[in-house]
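User: quick one, fold this
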Amino acid sequence: MEIISKTLTAIVALEHLYILYMEMFAWETLGKKTFRASLADDLFKPTKKLAANQGLYNGFLSAGLIWSLFICDQIWAKNVAVFFLGCVIVAGIYGAISASRKIFFVQALPAIIALIFVLLR
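Assistant:
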């Protein structure tokens, strides 16, 4: 169970590292491909700094999840993973309500599944 929970947590962390990269460094290329349905092409340049700020927050989520994987004390590691997965879930639910329902399935659902396995270990 521990291997599964750590693997799922790592997948969520990698997803947020990818989001960090896209929003901070590739907003006008990968960002356009990802959000073409919800943002007009002419909005990517003026929103580049806003996206970079969002990307930084995703990096913090990823850093916390990665940190949880390296903590030796199992109780502490579990608590840190629960906290950061909870943050991802809240962000995903808020994004689904405020921006696009797709965010729930891309962001919140993987974190919910990882959280279930973390709680079961």
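User: anything notable?
Assistant: The chain has a mean pLDDT of 95.
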